[in-house]
Amino acid sequence: MDSEHVTVEVDGGVAQVRLNRPNKLNALDHHMFQALVATGRALSTDESVRAVVIAGAGRAFCAGLDFSRFTQLAEGADGRAEVIDIGIDRLGGARALGQQAVRVWSQLPVPVIAAVHGVAFGGGLQIALGADIRIVAPTAELSVMEISWGLIPDMAGTQLLPELVGRDVAKELTFTGRRISGEHAAALGLATRAAADPIAEATTLANEIAGHERNALCEAKKLLELAGRVELSAGLDAEQESIAALLADPRFAENVRARLARVRGKRA
Length: 268
Known about the structure:
three-stranded mixed beta sheet, 12 helices, alpha/beta, globular
């Protein structure tokens, strides 16, 4: 599962994923996009994994698109065709490789936590948006930076950002390319919360999550991903389908018996 650009370590049900171009502040190139998608796909089928932490190696989470990619974009149609890599198969609704590198994390059946330190600019911020939870260093810098290059966030950012911060704030961040601190990002709802050591905090949270039944975590994530994106009746029906499946699973009865035994043991 490891590659030159993305590394993975699994311990106790928690997968630690690292963007691994520290000398480039983990800037995104074609190989990084490919590695992110391949890593997400591989983890989605690993039933030993119950939670994922995605972070950047070295001094930053991700500085955004590699400068060499901007050069290609400016070179004309041939260069643009290489950068804007559109496939046939969709992943989480996305056909473009860059979008898939974001959407793959929402398609993982288990919770994904982004731990952001240093900078998360442009595409780097959009990678973080693909996670279920974002924990950021108070001093981290985040920016929807594409407007500064005369571009728009094209890795699902325009679709994901308004849901987190509201349409008006999403527009302000996108129209200005303004850099904001991790502390400010948490206040806006762009980040779940700020922590002095986001990787340690994310790992603690991931271990807590990994202590629960994987099938229940998967069903919960699936339902929460539907919320507000489908008709209420469809969401309520899906909820009932999930609870019926969980109740019918032998692991539910085993978990109940084990939990009751622990409770009774404490009372004895």
